[in-house]
Amino acid sequence: MFEPKFPASTQARVDGQPVQIAVRVSARARSYRLSIPHQGGPVLTVPRHGRWSEAEAFLNRQTAWLAARLKRSAGPLPFAEGAEVPVRGVRHRIVGTGKVRGRVEALLVAEGPSLFVPGEPQHHSRRLTDWFKAEAQRDLEARVAIHAANLNVKVKSISMRSQSTRWGSCSSAGRLNFNWRLVLAPDFVLDYVAAHEVAHLVEMNHSPAFWATVRRTLPDMERGKAWLKAHGRELMAYGIEA
Prior knowledge:
24% strand; single chain; alpha/beta; four-stranded mixed sheet
């Protein structure tokens, strides 16, 4: 009977406790890699032609890194009454209006920036998610138009998605998809992802030529890129029910 070269999952001891780790075999990977997706547990990526003994040795060397990352990993951050959620980088408190009808409004009141949400509490999460998607669509359409003009490319469509691991994607046909949670981040972060995806219409890769294209339309690209690397995991946790 055929036995797979690599197991589907394994365990590592982190601070004395077992942690389940998914194993992903990749034909494109050239080295062993340990990562923690924005949602879900740790993943060990192994090259298709690698060896399990080498993968285990690599994993054992990464336990300190894994422990540190797991400690600062964000848990679910649901949209609930009284919770705080960032809007374009500014934290707002969620306040139910108690009214059946109305629209979500972001207002500055005596208590500070607030998001006023109509409807029953059990519907607040859906209403806020819909509002964030509309706000993200508006912001991204504006920034994509600028970068498309800068790079002389045409964008066919812009859609909002709820990807758990990606901030954006681009098809060769000019269709761009973005994670609506970008509107939670400071404006320069959303701008970076918009420039990134538009640049893929010039270079469908991540070669030096691609990064030069991003920089051509957004010279300050490193600022948004660094922010996402530092805070992206927390951002992905918003709107996830506990």
